[in-house]
Queue: 2 jobs
Job 1
Amino acid sequence: MVSTPATIFTKVYLDIMEMPKANSFKYVIAARDDLSRAGEGRSLRNKKAKSVSIFFFEQILCRYGAVGEVVTNNGPEFKEAFQLLMNRYKLPQIKISAYNSKANGVVEPGHFIIRESILRSCEGNVDKWPDYVQHAFFTDRCGRESVRRRPTHTNSSPGAGVQ
């Protein structure tokens, strides 16, 4: 049996995808909510734990409040400074082993859609991809899954996740 969180951003999946180098940016970090599948993301110059911590604090904790659990892989970017952040706010971090990579299946399928959306927005000039990261995540939140769900399951409605 799989449990479903009662509210949005109770369980968050984090992952980093590599992009072509452009204006010193090389990565996109993606956080996806388990309930609504809403995503948040940002372009990163590096995938160090400090960069991941800043993203998580600014775009997840400051927007949605404390989350119940954070699911990550065992990459070095999710250690050190990120681990300090998790400990500081007493957030449980679930680390996925290489033997169970499918456990990160909430965030992985969205990578292709986000990457394609970003690159197609560049209209052939791939060096501009960092300018379109926020647009791609906004479009992702407004379309696809969120449109098919009842209003109580979208993250923009009052009482989101309450039935």
Job 2
Amino acid sequence: MRSTQPPTVATWLLKQFGCSPQNEAILGDLIEQYRNGRHRLWYWRQIVTAIAVSSFREVWRQKTRTLAALSAGWIIFAFYRSPLDRPLFQSISLQINFASMQFQIPPSWWIYYGMYFLFLSFLTAIMGLIVGALSGWIVAKFQPSHRVPIVLMFVASLCSYWLFSLVFSIVKSGLVGVGIVPGHEIRSLLFLPFSFLPWVTSIVGIFWGGGLLDGREEGKA
């Protein structure tokens, strides 16, 4: 039998990240419509739309401040990504690809490369968490009383850039562009989730530093 309770996670997301002054009224209306027969996909779609629209309206109202906040956050990530993170992962990718093309990777060497890759992944994941928290904190300081929309916009801009970079790498270099080494597809797929770990921890750090994982006492406004 279909439950009359709407999806808990979706409801929490709107309570936590909804920026409209009528957030509670919107949520109540959505819950009522769900109980009247609307399906889960509809409910999720309405929740995401409500968060996106309310956030966009708020940042559009504070365009100059939002632009300054995004610029500050991007500068921090530019310093983080450029000197350390990118060269480290490019170095291991180039080493594996070159050795693979030359058929010079004995099976036993994959233990070394695997440990090296995992070490770099966890190292950059920790750095991503720290840098994300710092950037999220700074971005939120540009609009302390309404930090949710400005932090969400920063996260959206980063995710859009990362998605574009991922697609561009695949189009330009094929699967090698995302670390899938020809002849070692299975091993590469095992390592692939760890290569995304720094991205995930960066986003978590931004939410954490930006105060979006706290209670929403201020978010009611």
